[in-house]
């Protein structure tokens, strides 16, 4: 029938009339576009070489002018496999058309990582957000559904959860799954999306202050330098004030006592001697400023040392914990139990299962366990809420968390690439900050409260330079007056003119009171015929 129809210019077939041009080409060719759905189909538009894609029958468009612009190329909505209108991104995984069954641990504690929202019935958390963000970066759609694993009363066994991939109960496992050796033998893991490792947490108890607690704010070097500067400043002020201030004169024993008293009384701003010289006042002002800063810092540090809780434990890391016979806490469902027993050969009788952060705190405070061993991400959250504990020693294992898939799964490779992309573009860090960026409060040790010289060397340097400059100016002024009183060109006296004799004269000159020296110099000037009281002496 088709052959006979092609020999004519007009023919009617089962689907309708067909017209041909004289050259046997179809006149106004048009096709229906069908959306196949299971065993049925639905029409979603038309195509013709006159109008292109459209939702209007081509016969209706022939009477109009041809318009094949992009804005006119339209079809009705397409129903994709699994009855969704979401356009797929490419190859669909799994290729059998079923949704990916993803096992999720039904956690009781640390629900910031993964948990069930009772209001919406959806699974959420840090791990879930990372998984969903990585899925969006794949070049194909991955239909999936989250299936909870666990009774909701205690944390499930993660090793058992991972093994259900091998038994075909789940197609993947998403959550805070640590990548450890025994699990990598049965499943493939993605690239780690967060670093992890086991750490030791111990309680912090307040130490009783001893009789020498007042010495702890400063390090020994700081104490030594401070004491040296007290004596140095006292000596410098004594030198600057000795010739003009009666309070800094007298017998040698009295002057020594004055130096010591003045030096250390400035610590409390209780010095009764007043500085009269300009240089002495300058040095004293700078020194009192230094004393003010040092005193304030000392008071604050001593208060902190006497009130802050201090570490009181013989455990300083995993090594000392192993050698002791103390009980050790671990998180229910964590791989820490097997690691402590099988790898570190710690007796199971020493291991105590704990189900929540509150259980951690209670067991540590009551002495049920001497320490808790858990992964770093959990401990960071624990310490953000409970501040009476701290970690000791470094991480003694290095691992990470990843998503688990069947062996040789192409999805594991693609998800690893997606996780690396999230890490490089900063999205992974944003997800981390949204869920886990909580302030960790950890008590400080007494050594961290000690004040070191490095914090004050600038103040001491300024004070030292001020003292040096003041002494140089002072000795220059005194030396100039000395040369006026004992010029080098003067006739030799009975003491001779040797350098030692002149130096002895200089020391005697410094020891004299300024008033006496000035009067003597005036008498010398009068005797030499200088102007006195505005009149020239003959």
TrEMBL record:
InterPro entries in UniProt: Ionotropic_Glu_rcpt, Iontro_rcpt_C
Pfam families linked: Lig_chan
Any single biological process term in GO: signal transduction
Transmembrane regions: 221-240, 282-306, 456-479
Subcellular location(s) per record: Membrane
SMART domains: PBPe (SM00079)
SUPFAM superfamilies reported for this sequence: Periplasmic binding protein-like II
Gene Ontology annotations for the cellular component aspect, listed alphabetically: membrane
The Ionotropic glutamate receptor C-terminal domain, residue ranges: 101-438
Alphabetic keyword roster: Glycoprotein, Ion channel, Ion transport, Ligand-gated ion channel, Membrane, Receptor, Signal, Transmembrane, Transmembrane helix, Transport
Chief place where the protein resides: membrane
Membrane-related topology note: Multi-pass membrane protein
Family: Belongs to the glutamate-gated ion channel (TC 1.A.10.1) family.
Protein name: Ionotropic glutamate receptor C-terminal domain-containing protein
